[in-house]
Amino acid sequence: MTEPLHRTLGLxxxxxxxxxxxxxxxxxxxxxxxxxxxxxxxxxxxxSRVHLKRLPTxxxxxxxxxxxxxxxxDVGDDIAIAIRIESHNHPSYIEPYQGAAxxxxxxxxxxxxxxxRPIAIMDPLRFGPLEDARSKWVAxxxxxxxxxxxxxxxxxxxxxxxxFDQTYIGNPLVNVLCLGILPKDxxxxxxxxxxxxxxxxxxxxxxRDGIGGVSVLASAGFGDDEADADKRPSVQVxxxxxxxxxxxxxxxxxxxxxxxxxxxxxxxGLSCAASETASRGGVGMDFDVSAVPQxxxxxxxxxxxxxxxxxxxxxxxxxxxxEQVTAISKKWEIRSSVVGKVTEGGLLxxxxxxxxxxxxxxxxxxxxxxxxxYERPLAPPDDLELFQEDTAEQLPKPKDIGEDLVNxxxxxxxxxxxYDSQLFLNTVVGPGGDAAVLRLKDPISGRExxxxxxxxxxxxxxxxxxxxxxxxxxSVAEAVLNLACVGAEPRALVNCLNFxxxxxxxxxxxxxxxxDGMSEACREFDLPVxxxxxxxxxxxxxxxxxxxxxxxxIGVIDNLDAxxxxxxxxxxxxxxxxxxxxxxxxGSAWAFEQxxxxxxxxxxxxxxxxxxxxxxxxxxxxxxxTAVHDVSVGGIGVATAEMAIASGVGCSLARISSxxxxxxxxxxxxxxxxxxxxxxxxxEILTAAEVPKARIGLAHGDRFTIKGLLDxxxxxxxxxxxxxxxxxxxxxxTQG
Amino acid sequence: xxxxxxxxxxxxxxCEQDAVEAVKDLGAETQLLWHGSPEIGNVDGVIxxxxxxxxxxxxxxxxxxxxxxxxxxxDFAKKGGPxxxxxxxxxxxxEVGLLPGALQKNIGLKFxxxxxxxxxxxxxxxxxxxTQIGVDLKIPINHFEGNYTCSEDTLNExxxxxxxxxxxxxxxxxxxxxIAGICNKERNVVGLMPHPExxxxxxxxxxxxxxxxxxxxxxxxx
Amino acid sequence: xxYEACVEVRLREGxxxxxxSTIENATPKLGFQGVSNxxxxxxxxxxxxxxxxxxxxxxxxxxxxxxxxxxVIEDASITIxxxx
Lengths: 736, 222, 84
Prior knowledge:
The structure holds three protein chains of three kinds. Chain A is α+β, with helices and mostly antiparallel strands. Helix content of chain A is 36%, strand content 23%.
């Protein structure tokens, strides 16, 4: 008995019923194909929308909130910044290089479709452990793909994260954030308007790439290897050279005011671009499949409408401007074809020739806004109480605390040196800092504003595995503190919610809790959410990943006349830690290394956290500290070790009395290194602000010692830190 | 009088604005030269900037060398005009034959973006006249195919004629003779893999690129 | 007449090939013994309109010399056959 067509396309029976209700009749194959991709989880967010609406989205600097291709914020001097983060997780497991490369391509298009020149990307990545051969192969390919595409298309990669854990075996997470800059008055929205205006398809030819990608890959988990091999044809192949020309072409068209609206083609291809532009503009569109330049022979209309071939944009143009649009496209060697016409009424009609047969017709808005909204059941895990009682503080003391500390250290240069981080001459702090820092220059004149932008990505699956609500709030708090460490005030947040199978009530509970945690933290920090992405079905062989919400937070530095202090202390500096006493080991990297993945987290005290952020920002802005580093993964042990390694100067620390104090990751703590001449001044400022503080030691010499706990040779720590990834990876990859 | 520097733009070039910014800050005028036009105007010097001209497809610089603007630049160079090729620009100069040798994949088979220490080996060129022998310069490299290769004969010729300008202190990519930058026989065409325009501002970590670009602007003026 | 050309671009003898070496070193780890002398090149295939095979071959040779290879480090072997 063969499967009904709608089921092979990934639609459920109730979804088919709804389509019949909307159309007033049975849909044909083409119409079903369009609904199947537009109503897929990846495109419609049907399982998560009901939760996402709890996120705060308003703010005084917000020009465009969620719902458009990218969020846009005002950063002063008539300059606006577009920002977005996207995931390309499932394709990267199947074909790591191209999966990651096309993820970069896609997010960059989301940015320049708003009229912004892409100026930076960041890549928070998660992989299985490097001892797992497939995870290592995936990691090599992904880094190579991000490098190959990002460097070639010409957008610098200014930071990110690379995390390895068994929870990601079979489900790597490839999230990419992109920033773009534009003059406030060049903001363009992705909507069609003007009856009789033309839809012009720009860019690459359309082939069978990614057909069913969003429905097949991103809306289902992975099973056994053979079935996965079948999913291989679904992965798109990217061409960064085409994209670079497309960027220049589109920005030139926008500068010349030749475009009414513009939309990039990503998930669900032409179905999405045509229906979204029409639906947002409250109009309809006649779409001519025969006019779409095709790379392969014999493509069916449903293939043309759902193809995810890369490097394509749909521009809405008045007939008068068509000649100029064609001329500019030709200059940049970009194909341009009139593929449609804006109509009245709201119907999307797919036709064979604009005066030819109608192959399918649906109300445009139904593809976009009538997507099903699921309220999936959610429930905390049955064993939550027992889980919470099994705290990591109960673990035996480490046999060799120094060795445990060194095992948590890893230099990410093997990854980050593959990325061009300097293009455009803006990067003041690149990969490796607490946050990336860019000079802010006027996008038209190039004039320096004397101010800067700071961006960070953060996420912690261990905290979220223990407590999804609190773990997510702590991730937002960490991001805000990271910005404070470079002297920046946070302005906006974007998020990428990476979770398991939404048909599992525990996963839905995790998602809902994470949204609540993010919501609460954003309200406390006055941080609007200007965009987000949800990736579900990160599950293989029935095991879901740890909840991994990732946030990208952008801030502004009012005066960037010198680079921020960074992590390098000097011989003789006094070391102070500010913030509450450390408490608890559950959810720490140390605990997970011991195989312990349970317990509880300490509540976040927002008042204290805000105070710590404010005072850190003040000390940095006033140039009163030599070095600064927030305490997070690996606790104060890793924070001080990283500072010592960066400086080449060791330290003598005291008042860290146990492994719990050393490895605890409880929030709101910062290590400050202060020149002895400034010490009194700084301590007075801290006292006046009623900031909890403790002197913990002195930077000096060539050993890293903590009284009563450990005594290590700094050079040996540095060697292990430096060789960790190169030894695991050995060389470059032959992928790509 | 400040010199006018032409900076060529191929489809896929991406460092042209950076080159413009760097030389403008040093007092020069600039003009962007579109690859498709043989008109290069009355420029006093030419920079072929970094990036991925034509996607680096076939080989880096293999397609770019045939563009109309490059033909005019070759003429300009043959008449003694100062020309600097940075990174992708160096690759174009070897493909078009204005400089000997070729640039291959880095020996580590990975793209490499990092600041390296260069040693000045010769001050007898349009790029190094305002530096000193033995001086260390901290300048970023950013490439996958920066591994300089040439025949034994060419290497000897370069050595014997003082045509190796800059070498790597700690060879990052396998280049023969640790070569980072060379010049032609007439000393008016220079190619280097490192990016001097990325080392011209305190906020960006190094200003060691300035003396190199200043030497170039001097020669463009003279 | 239509001809099918296949140009196999190779690194010249004596030019170092890090990609080839990496692949060669990896093969024993995958359980393959006796693999040596790995060299990585590229193959470029295309159709060509020409009067006869001799002219086609000469055209392809010129294409190689001027464009498809970098003679400093590469050479090519050429195969021509009549298209179906």
